[in-house]
Amino acid sequence: xxLGMIGLxxxxxxxxxxxxxxxHECVGYALDAAAVRNxxxxxxxxxxxxxxxxxxxSRPRAVWLMVPAGAVDGTLASLVPLLDPDDTVIDGGxxxxxxxxxxxRELAAKGIHYLDVGVSGGVWGLERGYCLMIGGEExxxxxxxxxxxALAPGAGAAPRTPxxxxxxxxxxQGYLHCGPSGAxxxxxxxxxxxxxxxxxxxxxxxxxxxxANVGRQQHAADAETTPxxxxxxxxxxxxxxxxxxxxxxxxxxxxxxxxxxxxALLESRDLRDFAGRVxxxxxxxxxxxxxxxxxxxxxxxxxxxxxxxxxxxEADFADRLLSAMRFQFGGHVEKDAGAGGGNR
Length: 344
Fold this sequence. Notes:
By secondary structure, this protein is α/β, with parallel strands linked by helices. It contains 14 helices and eight strands. Strand 5 (88-91), helix 5 (97-108) and strand 6 (113-120) form a beta-alpha-beta unit. Helix 9 (183-210) crosses helix 12. The chain is elongated and about 75 Å long.
């Protein structure tokens, strides 16, 4: 099958490679001309403009966008006037599903199909495959099934759920038509909200283990420091790389995220190459907004999102204000950050 790809970054380029390895023809365009040139020797048909991409595709065309959420509308503004009725546009980025609803209506008025596809797999997707969560019209999804099947991991990516072979559908292949327009990105939005929570749980738990030797450290004895009452109970120097490795085998908390965690800790025990500034691309916020609209409690996912804000210094002013208030009512002077192992 033939597919046009706009956006050839880490994800887009790997998706093109995976499709070509499975016999599909890809036409690619990116603002970065070098990204286009890099893929041409591997068999991709390159082009230097959206117009060139449209010209090289046979009707009915299918054009997949792998661009940042903030660039989708601008890309559509230049692409849609070049398309014909019955062509299909797929947004595979991390767009907000509200925007999908609007875009689907706008394109439907022109006779153009619009699919929103949540893509999970990261930089490993080329070899492992991509989990695809698809929203849009049934007919358009069905027509592009060969593309989705080629990108997805396939049934061998995980042990089959008992009796799953009796249930029709593609979920056990790693791709799923989740519902009408917006459904794909809605499911991916919640997927990423859950991801925030899982990552935070691993990070917090391993941090407790990392500090389990606190009883061996010297601590200040003053009114500003809560004393460690039983230091003999905290005398452990744990090897976090080994612990995360053993958890991968037979543990109920085993997961691909834990696999990646074990790899990171093996490469760097103290993670000195990372400053600890954690970005959020929007899905966590949108997940919580949906939970508010639905009156669904999500304390874990909310805390994980707020922790990301704190990691970027968004809590610095509030922390300074807390310190200022303590000084105002009690004359408490801030202790040096490195003194006595910190306050408890």
